[in-house]
Amino acid sequence: MPQKGRVVFSKMEEVQFGVAAATAVAALAERLGAERVFLMVSGTLNRDTDEIARVRASLGPRCAAVFDRMPPHTPRRAVIEATEQARAAHADLIVTVGGGSITDGAKMVRLCLANDVRAPDALDALRPVRNADGAFVAPPCQPPAVRQISVPTTLSAGEFSAIAGVTDERSNVKELFRHPLVIPQVVILDPAITVHTPEWLFLSTGMRAVDHCVEGICSRAANPYSDAQALRGLSLLASGLPRVKVDPADIDARLDCLLGAWLSMGPLAAGVPMGASHGIGYILGAAFGIPHGYTSCITLPAVLRWNHSANAARQAMVAEAMGHSGEDASDVLRAFIASLGMPGSLAAVKVGPAEFDRIAEQAMQTAWVPHNPRPIESAAQLREILQLAA
């Protein structure tokens, strides 16, 4: 019986890599005919470096306003604050320079502008709905009309996704909002601008990209298209991240990491779901404020260990792509994480067994846990994984 599958390509138009962000943004704004460019940027980059000033200077009078106050995990209140500023600026293009929280925030600003959302509670109307086949899709709503260009400074790779993660402060849960047109139209991968990213953030978000690759490779739904991108992406990350750790000024290594992060999203683009590492990670991030890069460092080796009986051959592909053919993938990842100086346990981020029941119950409600390669039927099984990560 031949393998069946379906790959749906996104609405992204282009990716530019190895180019200077300011120059590329200005050229794109001119080409798109944008006159009111709204910048959503890292506050640290804006205050402590001249990178945002360069972008503003390159845009000249096209720059309408700058927002630099997006907190981690993209809380609803900040999304509304940015939306109101973009609305007042009459934005016709949004450019983000920063990490995943800023990128996701801009996606939601565009949806809020299109649907006249003006209060945090009003985001409820944009929550995804489950269709007949069980998949989550965007509810009936107006599509984003304002375009987005993203310049990532971290490696979580959310700029390659048509999903925005936003934290609902009422429940402290990070929700996934979806619309095929929220994906940025253009992504610019400028390795030079990432030298300002704190080492822990660059390396840990690199582990987030590794998590994308590994859970994509190990998925029951993996296909040749997703494998080709995830395996190459994992190889680039396994090589690039240690080189950046040794020499933060290594621009070639940084570009390898950016390209690896891009390729890490191949499985999701091909309809391959993530598994329990991502499901647990969402809860650790929203409920405990743990950066998502750290959550991947903590959960991924434990999930691989727990899944081993269900996908040993796939895990062998992971070890080989990381340059350790024949070794146990969980052990390879634990050693790799330690070599980067990243936390490798829940105890390292001060999450103890008293919290495991709550984490497990909440993770059962996430979109990814039902797709774990070894079926998870109860919170008790998730608790087993948490104990492996303790």
SSE string: EHEHHEHEHEEEEEEHHHHHHHHH
Helix content: 40-55%
CATH topology of the largest domain: Dehydroquinate synthase-like, alpha domain
**What is the alpha-carbon Rg in Å?**
20 Å
Main sheet: which strands, in order across? 1-10-7-4-2-3
List the uncertain runs. Answer: none
Count up the domains.
2
CATH homology-level superfamily of the largest domain: Dehydroquinate synthase-like - alpha domain
Return the structural class.
alpha/beta
Mean pLDDT: 95
What is the CATH C-level name of the largest domain? Mainly Alpha
Reported for the largest beta sheet, the result is:
6 strands, parallel
Distance between the termini: 42 Å
Total beta strand runs:
10
Number of helices: 14
Gross CATH architecture of the largest domain: Up-down Bundle
Name the beta content range: 5-15%
Report the principal-axis shape: globular
Describe the structure in your own words.
The protein is an alpha/beta fold. The protein has two domains: 14-192, Rossmann fold (3-Layer(aba) Sandwich); 198-389, Dehydroquinate synthase-like - alpha domain (Dehydroquinate synthase-like, alpha domain), CATH 1.20.1090. The protein is built from 14 helices and ten strands. The chain has helices at residues 21-32, 43-48, 51-59, 76-88, 100-114, 199-218, 224-246, 251-264, 266-269, 276-288, 292-321, 329-339, 356-363, 379-389, and strands at 14-17, 37-41, 63-67, 93-98, 129-130, 136-137, 147-152, 163-168, 173-178, 186-189. Strands 1-10-7-4-2-3 form a six-stranded parallel β-sheet, with helices on both faces. A two-stranded antiparallel ribbon has the order 5-6. A two-stranded antiparallel sheet has the order 8-9. It is globular, with a radius of gyration of 20 Å.
